[in-house]
Amino acid sequence: MKFEVFANGGCKSYMIGCEYSSNAAIIDPEVRLLDKYQAEASRNGLRIHYVIDTHTHADHFSGADELAELLNVPVVMHRDSPAPFASLRLQDGDMLKVGDLRVQAMHTPGHTRDSLCLLVEDRIFTGDTLLIGGTGRTDLPTGDPNELYDSLFNGILKLDAALQVFPAHDYKQLGSTTLAAEIANNDRLQKTDRAEFVDMMEHLNLSMPTHLTEALRTNMSGGKSVAQLLTAAAEKTPFISLKELAARIDQTGGDLIVLDVRERSEFEAAHIPGAMHIPRGQLELRVDDELQDPTTRIVTVCEFGKISTLAAATLRELGYLRCGALDGGMRSWTEEGLPVTAD
């Protein structure tokens, strides 16, 4: 088996591949690593046939939907997954063929209702059901400590103790473990009595994951995160540097419009001399009245360079093909000591 591990902070994802058929699968892809998965598959002479999410993630943005669309392959999840993009839904005991590899699915609810663990040869991919030195939490949507107890003590922990464990998160960068090591050393697994285990899980008092609502929204619905929208906008928008714009604003003779898309209070407090003002929320409604020449060069500006990127992408879609965005925004402009004026 060809095997690659990918890490993005504490998030872990995996590529398994059959060396004879060159078939491969990606497990728990993270949206920021899509190019890396494809590059590693190519480097290893593999073609990805399945994209698998072990559960609905609440602490990072899944790349399953986007990667599967790029590769024209199915997204594999448990049948209870709410994600509309899951096109191949597994039940407990189902198996996938990845060339000569056999990927056995175990339904392991508890962290989420749709949690799966995947058995492949001498290893088990545990998602967030079993972590290194811990377990998945049960206080997020569809979590249940009683179900997690059964998934662990009446399921995973009865498997071959020599199995290597590869979880979906590894915040301490420990790599991997074995079932034997977890049974011996994992503090949460020492609570073998159901009532004690459930009580422990109900009183962990953990902080909520960053971007919880956004992650659940996107992973459950197939919608886009703000970062994905910004990335898509940036891919079709040119930028102008602070230095370049500062050199041009006094030389253009009207050929360049600096368009500030912040709210009025921010614009009036300080803006680039000569800038026009249309708040981003009014852009589509006012653009024909205030930007009558679609051939004019336009540079959009906001506070940090994000909203202006979205605005520039919108203007280009509307036909203003000479529109770009200021790289850095007004915050960087003022930090560089470049000229501003106030109304």
Please outline what is shown here.
Helices cover 30% and strands 24% of the residues. By secondary structure, it is α/β, with parallel strands linked by helices.
What's the structural blueprint in terms of helices and strands?
Elements: E1 2-8, E2 11-17, E3 23-27, H1 34-43, E4 47-52, H2 64-71, E5 75-78, E6 88-90, E7 95-98, E8 101-107, E9 116-120, E10 123-127, E11 130-131, E12 134-135, H3 145-153, E13 164-167, E14 177-178, H4 179-185, H5 194-202, H6 212-221, H7 226-235, E15 239-240, H8 242-248, E16 256-260, H9 264-269, E17 276-277, H10 283-290, E18 297-301, H11 307-317, E19 323-326, H12 329-335
Helix pairs in contact: 7-11
Keywords:
19 strands, alpha/beta, 2 domains, six-stranded mixed beta sheet, elongated, 30% helix
Classified in CATH, the superfamily of the largest domain is Ribonuclease Z/Hydroxyacylglutathione hydrolase-like
* Helical proportion, percent range: 25-40%
Number of strands: 19
CATH fold call of the largest domain: Metallo-beta-lactamase, Chain A
The order of strands across the largest sheet is: 1-2-3-4-5-6
State the distance separating the first and last CA atoms: 66 Å
Q: Which structural category fits the helices and strands?
A: alpha/beta
Task: Compute the number of structural domains.
Answer: 2
- The CATH class of the largest domain, by name, is Alpha Beta
Give me the CATH architecture of the largest domain, please.
4-Layer Sandwich
Mean model confidence by pLDDT: 94
Give the radius of gyration: 25 Å
- β-strand percent reads 15-25%
Q: What's the number of helices?
A: 12
Silhouette: elongated
**What summary fits the major beta sheet?**
6 strands, mixed
Low-confidence stretches: none
